[in-house]
Amino acid sequence: MSSAAVRDRMLAAGQRITRQRDVVAGVLERARRPLGAGEICDAVTTSDPDVGRATVFRTLHSLVAAEIVQRVTLAGGQSGYLLCAADGHHHHLVCTSCGRTTDLPEAVVAPFLSRVEETHGFTVDHSSFDVHGRCADCR
Amino acid sequence: MSSAAVRDRMLAAGQRITRQRDVVAGVLERARRPLGAGEICDAVTTSDPDVGRATVFRTLHSLVAAEIVQRVTLAGGQSGYLLCAADGHHHHLVCTSCGRTTDLPEAVVAPFLSRVEETHGFTVDHSSFDVHGRCADCR
DNA sequence: ACCTATACTGATACTGCATCTCAATACGGA
DNA sequence: TCCGTATTGAGATGCAGTATCAGTATAGGT
């Protein structure tokens, strides 16, 4: 995903484009894997020391709200932030070895959730799966 | 689950039974829903003001390690601690209305994980699902 | 019932993530 | 260019969780 694409998606979500948001989005783009809050703050400060911590978190929050970034749970239990190529809410496989993530196709997830709803009379509002393991490359 | 059952499970996990651990386990037993760290600390202090913070967290850690308690993600994204009736690792449905949880049978989860492994050549080490919605009673 | 090794505990300081406040600033539409 | 308003930075603050370490209580053997 290019910076331009991220900007378009932020504009589409009614958000202004600022230098600070570009920096945060750029850090996540270059990582191509989920980053912890500390890593993001460090990388942002390296890129541009004049971006405040509060702004980093506000930006992450905005990006999560716009579904451009997802908050995922890393192996240790800490949360990480991941820039998603795909639009909308979806799920990921996280490789415990290389740290990279793979999108889980809706075709695999939807039948599972339907089954859950049927079996338990439960209406699913929101779901997030943390599936950790070793990807095909790392095995 | 009775207090005695929890004590047995702690002993089975090679842990000593102490007054402090009884207090923490008792708080989780009475709740019958996931509690946040703050709620637990408050309830423990109410029950017995002489139990230290560090001990509460150490106890939670031990209970999680023994798979007596699971750490789940609540609606807001904060994590909560839940005393599980079932042994071993399993998954939950969390009702956003009443806060109560339902165990997800392995029979529903296993085929889904198998499908994921087959489709992606991914070896699943650990998975945790956060499924939020409204339970049958609350609809 | 007693003894002993050692697992456990409490107070406190500390780390890290995240949010709040508020005056100052910059974006972007007209 | 001008203006309304979303956004920003600094620093204080809150909350979750961990580290330290001397002192205590538990389980299990005798």
For CATH, the homologous superfamily of chain A is named as Winged helix-like DNA-binding domain superfamily/Winged helix DNA-binding domain
Strand order, largest beta sheet of chain A: 1-3-2
Distance between the termini of chain A: 27 Å
Under CATH, the topology of chain A can be stated as: Arc Repressor Mutant, subunit A
- What radius of gyration of chain A results from the CA coordinates? 16 Å
**Helical region count of chain A?**
5
CATH architecture of chain A: Orthogonal Bundle
Q: What number of domains of chain A?
A: 1
Binned, the helix content of chain A reads 40-55%
The low-confidence parts of chain A are: none
Question: What is the assembly state of the chains in this entry?
Answer: homodimer
Largest interface, by Cβ-Cβ below 8 angstroms: which chains and how many residues each?
A-B, 35 and 35 residues
Number of DSSP strand runs of chain A? 6
Biggest beta sheet attributes of chain A: 3 strands, antiparallel
Which secondary-structure class do the elements of chain A indicate?
alpha+beta
Order of helices and strands of chain A: HHEHHEEEEHE
The average pLDDT value of chain A, as a whole number, equals 90
How much beta of chain A, percentage-wise?
A: 15-25%
Level-1 CATH class name of chain A: Mainly Alpha
Molecular shape of chain A: globular
